[in-house]
Amino acid sequence: MAIESEEKEVEDFLEVLKDHFTRAGGTRTEVQKRAQKEALLKQMGDKATDISEGLLDVATNMQMVENIYLLANHSDVGFVGVNMYCDDQAQLKDLPINQRASQIAEVCGKMIQT
Q1: pLDDT per residue rounded down to tens, the chain (114 residues)
Q2: d(CA 38, CA 23)
Q3: Biggest alpha carbon distance in the chain?
Q4: Sequence spans of domains, the chain
Protein backbone atom coordinates (compact mmCIF):
# COMPACT_ATOMS: atom_id res chain seq x y z
CA MET A 1 0.00 0.00 0.00
CA ALA A 2 1.31 3.45 -0.85
CA ILE A 3 0.53 6.91 0.46
CA GLU A 4 -2.18 8.18 -1.88
CA SER A 5 -2.55 11.87 -1.12
CA GLU A 6 -1.42 14.61 1.23
CA GLU A 7 -4.97 14.89 2.59
CA LYS A 8 -4.89 11.24 3.68
CA GLU A 9 -1.18 11.06 4.43
CA VAL A 10 -1.46 10.17 8.13
CA GLU A 11 -4.39 7.78 7.59
CA ASP A 12 -2.56 6.02 4.74
CA PHE A 13 0.65 5.85 6.80
CA LEU A 14 -1.19 4.18 9.69
CA GLU A 15 -2.73 1.65 7.29
CA VAL A 16 0.74 0.82 5.94
CA LEU A 17 1.94 0.27 9.51
CA LYS A 18 -1.06 -1.91 10.41
CA ASP A 19 -0.39 -4.02 7.33
CA HIS A 20 3.29 -4.30 8.25
CA PHE A 21 2.58 -5.29 11.87
CA THR A 22 0.09 -7.91 10.71
CA ARG A 23 2.63 -9.45 8.32
CA ALA A 24 5.60 -9.05 10.70
CA GLY A 25 4.41 -11.93 12.76
CA GLY A 26 3.83 -12.89 16.27
CA THR A 27 0.74 -14.67 17.40
CA ARG A 28 -1.38 -14.77 20.50
CA THR A 29 -2.29 -18.00 22.21
CA GLU A 30 -5.92 -18.85 22.92
CA VAL A 31 -5.26 -18.11 26.60
CA GLN A 32 -3.93 -14.64 25.69
CA LYS A 33 -6.92 -13.96 23.42
CA ARG A 34 -9.35 -14.95 26.18
CA ALA A 35 -7.49 -12.78 28.72
CA GLN A 36 -7.66 -9.83 26.31
CA LYS A 37 -11.42 -10.34 25.88
CA GLU A 38 -11.92 -10.56 29.63
CA ALA A 39 -9.93 -7.36 30.17
CA LEU A 40 -12.06 -5.59 27.56
CA LEU A 41 -15.28 -6.80 29.19
CA LYS A 42 -14.02 -5.66 32.60
CA GLN A 43 -13.23 -2.20 31.18
CA MET A 44 -16.76 -1.93 29.80
CA GLY A 45 -18.41 -2.86 33.11
CA ASP A 46 -22.21 -3.00 32.98
CA LYS A 47 -22.26 -2.12 29.27
CA ALA A 48 -20.57 -5.45 28.46
CA THR A 49 -23.78 -7.48 28.77
CA ASP A 50 -24.88 -6.53 25.25
CA ILE A 51 -21.61 -7.47 23.53
CA SER A 52 -21.68 -10.62 21.40
CA GLU A 53 -18.77 -13.04 21.16
CA GLY A 54 -18.42 -12.13 17.47
CA LEU A 55 -18.02 -8.45 18.27
CA LEU A 56 -15.47 -9.30 20.95
CA ASP A 57 -13.53 -11.32 18.37
CA VAL A 58 -13.52 -8.36 15.99
CA ALA A 59 -12.44 -5.93 18.72
CA THR A 60 -9.61 -8.10 20.00
CA ASN A 61 -8.33 -9.12 16.55
CA MET A 62 -8.06 -5.59 15.15
CA GLN A 63 -4.52 -4.58 14.35
CA MET A 64 -3.94 -1.14 15.78
CA VAL A 65 -0.95 1.17 15.94
CA GLU A 66 0.18 2.84 19.15
CA ASN A 67 1.61 6.33 18.66
CA ILE A 68 4.15 7.24 21.34
CA TYR A 69 5.25 10.85 21.48
CA LEU A 70 8.95 10.86 22.23
CA LEU A 71 9.60 14.55 21.76
CA ALA A 72 6.85 17.14 21.47
CA ASN A 73 7.29 19.70 18.70
CA HIS A 74 7.59 23.11 20.34
CA SER A 75 9.74 26.21 20.04
CA ASP A 76 12.51 24.91 22.38
CA VAL A 77 13.33 22.17 19.86
CA GLY A 78 12.73 24.15 16.68
CA PHE A 79 9.24 22.70 16.24
CA VAL A 80 10.63 19.24 15.46
CA GLY A 81 8.76 16.33 16.96
CA VAL A 82 9.65 12.66 17.26
CA ASN A 83 6.98 9.95 17.32
CA MET A 84 7.34 6.19 17.55
CA TYR A 85 4.69 3.95 16.03
CA CYS A 86 4.38 0.52 17.66
CA ASP A 87 2.37 -2.65 17.27
CA ASP A 88 -0.24 -2.28 20.01
CA GLN A 89 -0.32 -6.06 20.47
CA ALA A 90 3.44 -6.66 20.54
CA GLN A 91 3.48 -7.78 24.17
CA LEU A 92 0.48 -10.05 23.66
CA LYS A 93 2.20 -11.58 20.64
CA ASP A 94 5.32 -12.21 22.77
CA LEU A 95 7.47 -10.29 20.30
CA PRO A 96 11.04 -9.56 21.40
CA ILE A 97 11.94 -6.13 22.76
CA ASN A 98 13.15 -3.79 20.02
CA GLN A 99 16.39 -2.66 21.65
CA ARG A 100 17.10 0.05 19.07
CA ALA A 101 13.66 1.61 19.44
CA SER A 102 13.93 1.39 23.23
CA GLN A 103 17.29 3.20 23.15
CA ILE A 104 15.90 5.95 20.91
CA ALA A 105 12.99 6.39 23.33
CA GLU A 106 15.38 6.53 26.28
CA VAL A 107 17.43 9.28 24.60
CA CYS A 108 14.17 11.23 24.30
CA GLY A 109 13.48 10.74 28.01
CA LYS A 110 10.85 7.98 27.68
CA MET A 111 11.28 4.63 29.35
CA ILE A 112 8.99 2.37 27.31
CA GLN A 113 10.52 -1.01 28.04
CA THR A 114 8.69 -2.99 30.71
Answers
A1: 555 667 788 889 999 999 998 888 777 788 888 888 888 888 888 887 778 888 888 888 888 899 988 988 889 989 988 899 998 888 878 888 889 988 988 888 888 765
A2: 26
A3: 50
A4: 9-107
Distance CA 74, CA 53 (A): 45
pTM for this one? 0.68
Which of 37, 5, 34, 23 has its CA nearest to residue 95?
23
Report residue 13: phi and psi, to 5°: -60, -45
Dist CA 25 CA 7 (whole Å): 30
| Cα–Cα–Cα angle for 88, 94, 95, rounded to 5 degrees | 70
